[in-house]
Amino acid sequence: MEYRRLGGSGFKVPALTFGTGTFGGTNEFFKAWGQSDVAEATKLVDICLEAGLNMFDSADIYSEGAAESILGGAIKGRRDKVLISTKATFRAGQGPNDVGSSRFHLIKSVEGSLKRLGTDYIDLFQLHGFDATTPVEETLSTLDDLVRAGKIRYIGCSNFSGWHLMKSLAASERHGWSRYVAHQAYYSLVGRDYEWELMPLGLDQHVGAVVWSPLGWGRLTGKIRRGQPLPANSRLQSKMVKDIGPQVDEEYLYNVVDALDAVAKETEKTVPQVALNWLLQRPTVSTVIIGARNEEQLRQNLGAVDWNLTADQVKKLDAASARPFAYPYWHQQGFAERNPFPV
Questions:
Q1: How many domains, in total, are found in the chain?
Q2: Which of 7, 67, 253, 324 is most buried, with most CB under 10 Å away?
Q3: 339 occurs within a structural domain
Protein backbone atom coordinates (compact mmCIF):
# COMPACT_ATOMS: atom_id res chain seq x y z
CA MET A 1 0.00 0.00 0.00
CA GLU A 2 1.29 3.42 -0.97
CA TYR A 3 1.42 6.04 1.80
CA ARG A 4 1.00 9.74 1.08
CA ARG A 5 1.45 12.93 3.09
CA LEU A 6 -1.83 14.42 4.23
CA GLY A 7 -1.77 17.89 2.72
CA GLY A 8 1.18 19.95 3.92
CA SER A 9 1.55 18.01 7.17
CA GLY A 10 4.14 15.36 8.00
CA PHE A 11 1.35 12.84 8.64
CA LYS A 12 1.32 9.91 6.21
CA VAL A 13 -1.90 8.10 5.35
CA PRO A 14 -2.60 5.11 3.08
CA ALA A 15 -3.77 5.81 -0.47
CA LEU A 16 -6.99 4.02 0.44
CA THR A 17 -9.02 4.57 3.61
CA PHE A 18 -11.86 2.31 4.74
CA GLY A 19 -15.16 4.11 5.35
CA THR A 20 -17.40 2.77 8.11
CA GLY A 21 -20.73 4.06 6.79
CA THR A 22 -21.62 0.38 6.25
CA PHE A 23 -21.27 -0.37 9.98
CA GLY A 24 -24.53 -0.54 11.94
CA GLY A 25 -27.34 0.23 9.54
CA THR A 26 -29.64 1.42 12.32
CA ASN A 27 -31.92 3.57 10.16
CA GLU A 28 -33.32 3.61 6.62
CA PHE A 29 -30.54 5.77 5.22
CA PHE A 30 -27.60 3.76 6.56
CA LYS A 31 -29.31 0.39 6.19
CA ALA A 32 -29.11 1.00 2.42
CA TRP A 33 -25.31 1.24 2.81
CA GLY A 34 -24.76 -1.87 4.92
CA GLN A 35 -25.37 -3.48 8.30
CA SER A 36 -22.01 -4.87 9.45
CA ASP A 37 -21.87 -5.85 13.12
CA VAL A 38 -18.70 -6.11 15.23
CA ALA A 39 -17.91 -9.64 14.05
CA GLU A 40 -18.13 -8.76 10.35
CA ALA A 41 -16.40 -5.41 10.90
CA THR A 42 -13.52 -7.21 12.61
CA LYS A 43 -13.04 -9.45 9.55
CA LEU A 44 -13.05 -6.39 7.26
CA VAL A 45 -10.49 -4.63 9.46
CA ASP A 46 -8.33 -7.78 9.36
CA ILE A 47 -8.37 -7.77 5.55
CA CYS A 48 -7.54 -4.05 5.44
CA LEU A 49 -4.57 -4.40 7.76
CA GLU A 50 -3.24 -7.38 5.80
CA ALA A 51 -3.29 -5.18 2.69
CA GLY A 52 -1.57 -2.28 4.43
CA LEU A 53 -4.73 -0.16 4.72
CA ASN A 54 -4.70 1.08 8.30
CA MET A 55 -6.93 4.18 8.23
CA PHE A 56 -10.62 4.00 9.09
CA ASP A 57 -13.07 6.87 8.64
CA SER A 58 -16.29 7.36 10.59
CA ALA A 59 -18.61 10.07 11.93
CA ASP A 60 -20.74 10.63 15.00
CA ILE A 61 -23.95 10.54 12.94
CA TYR A 62 -23.26 7.27 11.11
CA SER A 63 -26.09 5.06 12.38
CA GLU A 64 -26.52 7.39 15.39
CA GLY A 65 -23.02 6.61 16.67
CA ALA A 66 -23.26 2.84 16.15
CA ALA A 67 -20.62 2.93 13.38
CA GLU A 68 -18.06 4.41 15.77
CA SER A 69 -18.97 1.89 18.47
CA ILE A 70 -18.64 -1.02 16.03
CA LEU A 71 -15.31 0.30 14.76
CA GLY A 72 -14.14 0.60 18.36
CA GLY A 73 -15.04 -3.04 18.94
CA ALA A 74 -13.34 -4.15 15.72
CA ILE A 75 -10.02 -2.49 16.59
CA LYS A 76 -10.04 -3.34 20.29
CA GLY A 77 -6.57 -4.40 21.42
CA ARG A 78 -4.85 -3.01 18.32
CA ARG A 79 -5.37 0.74 18.53
CA ASP A 80 -1.65 1.24 17.94
CA LYS A 81 -1.94 -0.42 14.52
CA VAL A 82 -4.67 1.82 13.10
CA LEU A 83 -5.38 5.44 12.23
CA ILE A 84 -8.84 6.80 13.01
CA SER A 85 -10.60 9.72 11.39
CA THR A 86 -14.06 10.83 12.40
CA LYS A 87 -16.33 13.83 12.02
CA ALA A 88 -18.89 16.03 13.74
CA THR A 89 -21.06 19.12 13.05
CA PHE A 90 -24.33 17.60 11.85
CA ARG A 91 -27.24 17.29 14.26
CA ALA A 92 -26.59 14.52 16.79
CA GLY A 93 -29.44 15.09 19.26
CA GLN A 94 -32.64 17.03 19.86
CA GLY A 95 -31.21 19.90 21.90
CA PRO A 96 -30.50 23.38 20.52
CA ASN A 97 -26.75 22.85 21.03
CA ASP A 98 -26.61 19.34 19.55
CA VAL A 99 -25.62 20.65 16.13
CA GLY A 100 -22.97 22.88 14.58
CA SER A 101 -19.35 23.74 15.27
CA SER A 102 -19.70 25.71 18.50
CA ARG A 103 -17.26 25.12 21.36
CA PHE A 104 -20.10 23.44 23.28
CA HIS A 105 -21.00 20.99 20.53
CA LEU A 106 -17.48 20.16 19.35
CA ILE A 107 -16.18 19.32 22.82
CA LYS A 108 -19.26 17.20 23.52
CA SER A 109 -18.89 15.49 20.12
CA VAL A 110 -15.20 14.68 20.57
CA GLU A 111 -15.77 13.28 24.05
CA GLY A 112 -18.62 11.12 22.72
CA SER A 113 -16.56 9.83 19.80
CA LEU A 114 -13.60 8.98 22.05
CA LYS A 115 -15.88 6.96 24.30
CA ARG A 116 -17.58 5.07 21.47
CA LEU A 117 -14.28 4.38 19.70
CA GLY A 118 -12.63 3.19 22.91
CA THR A 119 -9.61 5.45 22.50
CA ASP A 120 -8.13 8.54 24.10
CA TYR A 121 -7.17 10.31 20.86
CA ILE A 122 -8.38 10.78 17.28
CA ASP A 123 -5.76 10.91 14.53
CA LEU A 124 -7.81 13.12 12.17
CA PHE A 125 -10.89 15.02 13.32
CA GLN A 126 -12.94 16.75 10.64
CA LEU A 127 -15.86 19.14 10.63
CA HIS A 128 -18.59 17.36 8.65
CA GLY A 129 -19.81 20.64 7.16
CA PHE A 130 -19.48 24.40 7.52
CA ASP A 131 -21.40 26.13 10.32
CA ALA A 132 -22.17 29.68 9.20
CA THR A 133 -23.84 30.49 12.55
CA THR A 134 -20.65 30.06 14.62
CA PRO A 135 -17.63 32.38 14.24
CA VAL A 136 -14.72 30.54 12.64
CA GLU A 137 -12.55 31.87 15.48
CA GLU A 138 -14.65 30.01 18.05
CA THR A 139 -14.51 26.80 16.03
CA LEU A 140 -10.78 26.91 15.31
CA SER A 141 -9.73 27.94 18.80
CA THR A 142 -11.72 25.00 20.15
CA LEU A 143 -10.08 22.58 17.71
CA ASP A 144 -6.68 24.02 18.62
CA ASP A 145 -7.42 23.48 22.32
CA LEU A 146 -8.36 19.86 21.59
CA VAL A 147 -5.13 19.36 19.66
CA ARG A 148 -3.08 20.85 22.51
CA ALA A 149 -4.95 18.60 24.97
CA GLY A 150 -3.85 15.55 22.95
CA LYS A 151 -7.39 14.47 22.08
CA ILE A 152 -6.91 15.24 18.36
CA ARG A 153 -3.71 14.91 16.32
CA TYR A 154 -4.73 16.66 13.07
CA ILE A 155 -7.79 18.61 11.92
CA GLY A 156 -9.67 18.72 8.66
CA CYS A 157 -12.99 19.84 7.23
CA SER A 158 -15.55 18.39 4.86
CA ASN A 159 -17.98 19.75 2.29
CA PHE A 160 -16.68 23.33 2.57
CA SER A 161 -16.96 25.94 -0.16
CA GLY A 162 -13.72 27.54 -1.29
CA TRP A 163 -14.35 30.70 0.72
CA HIS A 164 -15.30 28.67 3.82
CA LEU A 165 -11.95 26.91 3.70
CA MET A 166 -9.89 29.98 2.85
CA LYS A 167 -11.50 32.07 5.59
CA SER A 168 -10.73 29.33 8.10
CA LEU A 169 -7.11 28.94 6.96
CA ALA A 170 -6.61 32.70 7.20
CA ALA A 171 -7.95 32.73 10.77
CA SER A 172 -5.64 29.88 11.77
CA GLU A 173 -2.64 31.68 10.30
CA ARG A 174 -3.60 34.98 11.94
CA HIS A 175 -3.89 33.46 15.42
CA GLY A 176 -1.28 30.69 15.20
CA TRP A 177 -3.85 27.91 15.61
CA SER A 178 -3.82 24.43 14.13
CA ARG A 179 -4.85 24.57 10.49
CA TYR A 180 -6.87 22.23 8.30
CA VAL A 181 -4.57 19.79 6.52
CA ALA A 182 -7.40 17.80 4.93
CA HIS A 183 -10.66 18.45 3.12
CA GLN A 184 -12.98 15.46 2.89
CA ALA A 185 -14.75 16.17 -0.38
CA TYR A 186 -17.00 14.47 -2.90
CA TYR A 187 -15.03 13.70 -6.06
CA SER A 188 -15.59 11.05 -8.72
CA LEU A 189 -15.60 10.47 -12.44
CA VAL A 190 -19.26 11.55 -12.46
CA GLY A 191 -18.72 14.40 -10.00
CA ARG A 192 -15.78 16.59 -10.95
CA ASP A 193 -16.91 19.93 -9.46
CA TYR A 194 -14.10 19.58 -6.89
CA GLU A 195 -11.65 20.49 -9.66
CA TRP A 196 -13.13 23.95 -10.27
CA GLU A 197 -11.95 25.76 -7.13
CA LEU A 198 -11.25 23.35 -4.28
CA MET A 199 -8.44 21.54 -6.10
CA PRO A 200 -6.49 24.73 -6.99
CA LEU A 201 -7.06 25.93 -3.42
CA GLY A 202 -5.78 22.62 -2.05
CA LEU A 203 -2.63 22.87 -4.14
CA ASP A 204 -1.99 26.48 -3.16
CA GLN A 205 -2.70 26.01 0.56
CA HIS A 206 -1.40 22.43 0.94
CA VAL A 207 -4.72 20.88 1.92
CA GLY A 208 -5.02 17.21 0.98
CA ALA A 209 -8.22 15.74 -0.42
CA VAL A 210 -9.82 12.87 1.47
CA VAL A 211 -12.26 11.68 -1.18
CA TRP A 212 -15.71 10.44 -0.18
CA SER A 213 -18.05 8.46 -2.43
CA PRO A 214 -15.38 7.90 -5.13
CA LEU A 215 -17.76 5.62 -7.04
CA GLY A 216 -20.34 8.37 -7.57
CA TRP A 217 -22.78 7.40 -4.81
CA GLY A 218 -22.78 3.75 -5.93
CA ARG A 219 -23.15 4.49 -9.65
CA LEU A 220 -19.69 3.27 -10.76
CA THR A 221 -19.82 -0.23 -9.35
CA GLY A 222 -19.92 -1.73 -12.84
CA LYS A 223 -23.43 -3.03 -12.22
CA ILE A 224 -25.34 -0.01 -13.55
CA ARG A 225 -25.54 0.18 -17.31
CA ARG A 226 -27.75 1.54 -20.06
CA GLY A 227 -30.98 -0.42 -20.53
CA GLN A 228 -30.57 -2.53 -17.39
CA PRO A 229 -32.53 -2.29 -14.13
CA LEU A 230 -30.83 -1.23 -10.90
CA PRO A 231 -29.32 -4.15 -8.96
CA ALA A 232 -31.59 -5.25 -6.11
CA ASN A 233 -28.95 -4.43 -3.50
CA SER A 234 -28.00 -1.00 -4.87
CA ARG A 235 -28.26 1.84 -2.34
CA LEU A 236 -29.94 3.81 -5.14
CA GLN A 237 -33.02 1.63 -4.67
CA SER A 238 -33.74 3.83 -1.65
CA LYS A 239 -35.41 7.08 -2.77
CA MET A 240 -34.13 8.78 0.40
CA VAL A 241 -30.53 7.83 -0.36
CA LYS A 242 -30.84 8.77 -4.04
CA ASP A 243 -32.39 12.17 -3.28
CA ILE A 244 -29.86 13.11 -0.58
CA GLY A 245 -26.80 12.20 -2.64
CA PRO A 246 -25.28 13.85 -5.72
CA GLN A 247 -27.53 13.97 -8.76
CA VAL A 248 -26.20 12.60 -12.05
CA ASP A 249 -27.78 12.79 -15.51
CA GLU A 250 -28.40 9.23 -16.69
CA GLU A 251 -27.07 9.59 -20.24
CA TYR A 252 -23.93 11.27 -18.92
CA LEU A 253 -23.48 8.39 -16.46
CA TYR A 254 -23.86 5.78 -19.18
CA ASN A 255 -21.28 7.54 -21.37
CA VAL A 256 -18.79 7.53 -18.51
CA VAL A 257 -19.51 3.86 -17.78
CA ASP A 258 -18.93 3.06 -21.47
CA ALA A 259 -15.48 4.64 -21.23
CA LEU A 260 -14.80 2.79 -17.98
CA ASP A 261 -15.79 -0.49 -19.61
CA ALA A 262 -13.36 0.13 -22.46
CA VAL A 263 -10.47 0.95 -20.12
CA ALA A 264 -11.34 -1.95 -17.81
CA LYS A 265 -11.06 -4.29 -20.79
CA GLU A 266 -7.66 -2.83 -21.74
CA THR A 267 -6.28 -3.09 -18.21
CA GLU A 268 -8.00 -6.34 -17.26
CA LYS A 269 -9.29 -4.58 -14.16
CA THR A 270 -12.85 -4.02 -12.91
CA VAL A 271 -14.86 -0.83 -13.44
CA PRO A 272 -14.57 0.22 -9.76
CA GLN A 273 -10.81 -0.43 -9.77
CA VAL A 274 -10.37 1.79 -12.82
CA ALA A 275 -12.57 4.56 -11.35
CA LEU A 276 -10.60 4.50 -8.08
CA ASN A 277 -7.23 4.42 -9.82
CA TRP A 278 -8.21 7.48 -11.88
CA LEU A 279 -8.81 9.38 -8.66
CA LEU A 280 -5.51 8.28 -7.14
CA GLN A 281 -3.70 10.02 -10.01
CA ARG A 282 -5.46 13.37 -9.52
CA PRO A 283 -3.71 16.41 -7.96
CA THR A 284 -4.19 16.99 -4.19
CA VAL A 285 -5.67 13.53 -3.53
CA SER A 286 -4.13 12.15 -0.34
CA THR A 287 -6.48 9.22 0.24
CA VAL A 288 -9.65 7.77 -1.25
CA ILE A 289 -12.32 6.36 1.07
CA ILE A 290 -13.63 2.97 -0.01
CA GLY A 291 -16.59 1.17 1.52
CA ALA A 292 -17.67 -2.43 1.41
CA ARG A 293 -20.68 -4.42 2.53
CA ASN A 294 -18.68 -7.65 2.56
CA GLU A 295 -15.24 -9.20 2.09
CA GLU A 296 -15.65 -9.68 -1.67
CA GLN A 297 -16.35 -5.99 -2.28
CA LEU A 298 -13.47 -4.97 -0.04
CA ARG A 299 -10.93 -7.21 -1.77
CA GLN A 300 -12.07 -5.91 -5.16
CA ASN A 301 -11.66 -2.27 -4.11
CA LEU A 302 -8.21 -3.00 -2.67
CA GLY A 303 -7.22 -3.99 -6.21
CA ALA A 304 -7.28 -0.31 -7.22
CA VAL A 305 -3.70 0.23 -5.97
CA ASP A 306 -0.20 -0.87 -6.99
CA TRP A 307 -0.74 -0.11 -10.69
CA ASN A 308 -1.49 2.98 -12.78
CA LEU A 309 -3.60 3.88 -15.77
CA THR A 310 -1.66 5.08 -18.79
CA ALA A 311 -1.75 8.72 -19.83
CA ASP A 312 -3.95 7.81 -22.83
CA GLN A 313 -6.40 5.91 -20.62
CA VAL A 314 -6.62 8.89 -18.25
CA LYS A 315 -7.32 11.17 -21.23
CA LYS A 316 -10.08 8.83 -22.41
CA LEU A 317 -11.78 8.95 -19.01
CA ASP A 318 -11.24 12.71 -18.72
CA ALA A 319 -12.92 13.29 -22.06
CA ALA A 320 -15.91 11.07 -21.28
CA SER A 321 -16.52 12.70 -17.88
CA ALA A 322 -15.87 16.35 -18.83
CA ARG A 323 -18.71 18.75 -18.06
CA PRO A 324 -19.26 22.47 -18.76
CA PHE A 325 -17.84 24.65 -16.00
CA ALA A 326 -19.93 27.18 -14.07
CA TYR A 327 -18.98 30.88 -14.07
CA PRO A 328 -16.35 32.20 -13.38
CA TYR A 329 -14.51 28.93 -13.99
CA TRP A 330 -15.44 28.61 -17.66
CA HIS A 331 -14.10 32.11 -18.20
CA GLN A 332 -10.85 31.33 -16.41
CA GLN A 333 -10.42 28.15 -18.45
CA GLY A 334 -10.26 30.32 -21.56
CA PHE A 335 -6.93 31.74 -20.41
CA ALA A 336 -4.81 28.68 -19.77
CA GLU A 337 -1.51 30.59 -19.77
CA ARG A 338 -2.68 32.43 -16.63
CA ASN A 339 -4.97 29.76 -15.14
CA PRO A 340 -3.50 26.35 -16.03
CA PHE A 341 -5.35 23.20 -14.97
CA PRO A 342 -3.87 21.78 -11.74
CA VAL A 343 -1.14 19.19 -12.21
A1: 1
A2: 67
A3: no
B/e letters for 268-298, b = 16+ CB within 10 Å, e = fewer, are: ebbbbbbbbbbbbebebbbbbbbbbbeeebb
CATH number of the CATH domain containing 144: 3.20.20.100
Q: Check 3, 62, 180, 187 and give the catalytic one.
A: 62
265: Cβ–Cβ under 8 A, 6 or more apart, which residues? none
Contact 190, 165 (CB under 8 A): no
* Cα angle: 184, vertex 323, 219; to 5 degrees: 60
Residue 27 lies in a domain: yes
CA-based end-to-end distance of the chain: 23
Question: Would you give per-residue pLDDT tens digits along the chain (343 residues)?
Answer: 999 999 999 999 999 999 999 999 988 888 888 899 999 999 999 999 999 999 999 999 999 999 999 999 999 999 999 999 999 999 999 999 999 999 999 999 999 999 999 999 999 999 999 999 999 999 999 999 999 999 999 999 999 999 999 999 999 999 999 999 999 999 999 999 999 999 999 999 999 999 999 999 999 998 888 888 888 777 787 787 888 888 999 999 999 999 999 999 999 999 999 999 999 999 999 999 999 989 999 999 999 999 999 999 999 999 999 999 999 999 998 998 998 888 8
Complete DSSP assignment for 4-21: EE-TTSS-EEESEEEE-T
Beta partners for 184? Answer: 158, 210
SS3 332: helix
* Strand, helix or coil for residue 215: coil
Query: Which conformational region is residue 166 in: left (phi greater than 0), alpha (psi within -120 to 50 degrees), or beta?
Result: alpha
Angle at Cα 298 formed by Cα 308 and Cα 117, nearest 5°?
115
* 312 found inside a domain: yes
Residue 121 · residue 109 · CB < 8 Å = no
Give catalytic status of residue 62 as yes or no. Answer: yes
